[in-house]
């Protein structure tokens, strides 16, 4: 089966492509959908009804799973837009609360909208006190992502009044609650793991300041948040806020397509983000740098990364969509230097090793030919380590920042009148029907 090149224009004005099945000799017209930007899309929704055939695309490398107005990525140009604004512009001129508003509502807020939004988020930062007992039930050495998946899933047991997804007001309250409570949950997961008392949120601080305060303050002494670190934290949040239909966002959409409540859907997204090929890569970058240990061992690890028989991959390099550069990585590279200057850690041996690895990999023909460039995780791990976060917290911070993207995408899906439960098909490769063998006759 192949599709004839070039689009035909039907009498109705609908552009179509002709698909010819050379086995049966049948031809079918597939509508072509044009987005505002990005490649054209063959609409195969009616393909099964028309042809009795499925399409096969594990990993969704050629499949648009939904339509969306939120985020656009051009992987060839290294372009990332949120509601039309470049990520560089937002990281430079905006702050995380504005970006949250933009993702949720479609436009940047004016002054009063921003004040109202910030107060709605601030108003929801505290957790139900009963949740503290829930935290205390975990082992102290639990991975904070395990704690976060559990705690966020449990929010639906504490906030019943915002789980009716058919009510727009409840959807908005749930969205605010999720964005507001994630820093509190993340900081509590950290505090529990290091055996320090939980620190309650402070409403006079900005979103990023409050998170740093809840994470690093102790009741015994005053803690002043560094403006440089708060700005870097805010920037990390902006750069991770949304990224189109990646694995965790698609997980949230799939979970939500059944009508599951938003807290359960975001917990599913967190579980998906945890993997080392996705959000877990920032932790994996640091562990890899520690494993490499010194600059003279870089060539050895580069050879391992190229060896198809070795499962080792260069963590923090490569991306499914970006095939020239990751624009988020460029912004974070600058922040990494600012933060290390502020903290007096310019001579950090791990950063030195990371920079040398970046230099060598970018001039290595394997990485150049395959267009494998440092991604956002390559730099975020370095900054977060310098700030004092243990590597187990890196993915937690990614989840915190990505919550707004998940929520915006979930809302968009629920509010789409054409929304259906996600139910992919399969290419079955197992046995055909066969007779049951009683246990005493099995080999
Ligand atoms: N090190 C060595 N080789 C690599 C790497 C790497 N990091 N990434 C891709 N390749 C090779 C891969 O072996 C393949 O080679 P070949 O064509 O000879 O089979 C080729 O490059 C294409 O790779 P792919 O696996 O088909 O690409 P993908 O789109 O399926 O995978 C990826 C994308 C991000 C999972 C992968 O690049 C990877 O595992 N990177 C390391 C993990 C990482 O940094 N992940 C964070 C992604 S950014 C954060 C986010 O958005 O979640």
TrEMBL record:
The keyword Chaperone does not apply. GO terms for cellular component: cytoplasm. Residues 1-19 have a biased composition (Polar residues). Pfam families: Citrate_synt (PF00285). InterPro entries: Citrate_synth-like_lrg_a-sub, Citrate_synth-like_sm_a-sub, Citrate_synthase, Citrate_synthase_AS, Citrate_synthase_bac-typ, Citrate_synthase_sf, Citrate_synthase_typ-I. PROSITE patterns: CITRATE_SYNTHASE. Pathway: Carbohydrate metabolism; tricarboxylic acid cycle; isocitrate from oxaloacetate: step 1/2. Residues 1-23, 424-443 are annotated as: Disordered. SUPFAM superfamilies: Citrate synthase. The keyword Transferase applies. Keywords: Transferase, Tricarboxylic acid cycle. One of its GO terms (biological process) is tricarboxylic acid cycle. GO terms for molecular function: citrate synthase activity. It comes from the Bacteria. The active site is at residues 319, 377. It catalyses: oxaloacetate + acetyl-CoA + H2O = citrate + CoA + H(+). Belongs to the citrate synthase family. PANTHER family: CITRATE SYNTHASE. This is Citrate synthase. It comes from Rhodovibrio salinarum. The gene is gltA.
